[in-house]
Request: fold
Amino acid sequence: MITGEGFLAFAELTALGILSLSFLLTVIRVLRGPALPDRVVGLDMLVAIAIGFIAVIGIRTGYTLYLDIAIALGLVGFLATVAFARFVMSRRYEEEFISKDPLGLYRNKSND
Amino acid sequence: MIELIHNLVVGTLILIGAFFALAASIGILRLPDLYTRMHAASKAGTLGSGVMLIALAIYAPGHSTVTRALAAVLFFLLTAPISAHLLAKAAHAAGYRLWDGSVRDDMFGDGRPDHSRDGKF
Reply:
């Protein structure tokens, strides 16, 4: 009687290897990313890959309690991306405000 | 026999999900500008993790795990386009440039579509 257990174990190990490789590639983009939004996109992708890890580990060990953590991680990733989008925009508006500052109130303050 | 089909379906689904995640990360590394990278991450990345969560839902015994996995898939399908759209709009408004090879920017200037270059590449 063939049950396919061997194929499932092979698929789990292969998926873990591929996920590790894609995690590494995304980390390279986060480190290299020329601007802030590139890094934010990389972090969003890291969250997605971590959720994939949680799913594969849940299949491999039968321990599905981490699924709640996956949902919370997705929520945190979404809120972080929204907050970073607001930050990207507000940083630009702040720069514009400083460049149009007729009284010189903000001229000596750095932007970061 | 049922067990064989079960294992084959779950294994195939997690392999498909892992390959989509790999495609998304290669795209994030290789594509030329922010907007194309974002399209790789938010479509292929969401599909990869969603397919792996569906594999977990097929594999797991018990209703609670299945419900939570499917709720997570639904949640990611709802939030991924919102966050990608917000980030793309914020980056465009903040002045991050498109790749030089882009043929058209519908939001250039006042944000109204520009049809003057339609059909000309």
Summary: The helical segments of chain B are 2-30, 34-59, 63-93. Chain B touches chain A through 56 residues (CB under 8 Å). Residues 2-93 of chain B form one domain. Chain B has a mean pLDDT of 86.
